[in-house]
Amino acid sequence: MSNDFFKHKAESYEQVNHRVANVEKIASSILSRIHFSSGMNIMDFGSGTGLLLEKIAPVVGKISAVDISKSMNQQLEQKRASLGCELEIIERDLSKLNLDRTFDGIISSMTMHHVDDIKAMFEKFHAMLSSGGFIAIADLETEDGTFHTEDTGVFHFGFDHEELEEFAKRAGFNDVQVASVSRVHKPQGDYPVLLLTATA
Predict the structure, then answer these.
(1) Which SS3 state, helix, strand or coil, does residue 33 take?
(2) Strand 41-45 and strand 62-67: pairing?
(3) What is the reported pLDDT for 122?
(4) pLDDT at residue number 17
(5) Residue 119, exposed/middle/buried by CB under 10 A (0-12, 13-18, 19+)?
(6) Domain total for the chain?
(7) Predicted local confidence at residue 36, as pLDDT
(8) Regions of the chain short of the pLDDT cut 50
(9) What is the domain extent for residue 53?
(10) CA 129, 135, 137 angle in degrees (round to 5)?
(11) What's residue 111's pLDDT?
(12) Residues pairing with 141 in the sheet
């Protein structure tokens, strides 16, 4: 993702009902599975306009939002004052560049299918977590390629539960669990969404 594929849709991104509803279900599932605390510093990978992180913000101390899209980051910046925690915005392609930091946890919503090398990304996640830290990664389950009707830098048509679980285990994660947590309703079909949680 070297281009800002979301430049033309950043301002209207949160006006799509099925998108907002999906992230609300993802956030609810993460909150029910992960024990957050006010001292935590977590990273949101592919944070976009902050749909996910604004739901998590009230229960942590700081969120580092990492996204490649300048236009999406600009939309997130407008939310800074209303969030329930400290916010750091990092404009970076984490699939190509490193971030020499450690976090208590990493959350992500609907971003992994934009990442070419899934194996390398899970390994990078593991290296960026403090001992005992967690990941909570949500994305599409395997689909037929019709979810995206425009080019937004898609490398994968969703993921199989066992496939994603294996990537996490091979990267060194423990307590790996994958569950279906949401369903996106689009005119062209319904698309299940999974959530993978694990600890470092």
Answers:
(1) helix
(2) parallel
(3) 97
(4) 66
(5) exposed
(6) 1
(7) 97
(8) 1-2, 10
(9) 13-103+115-153+161-199
(10) 140
(11) 94
(12) 159
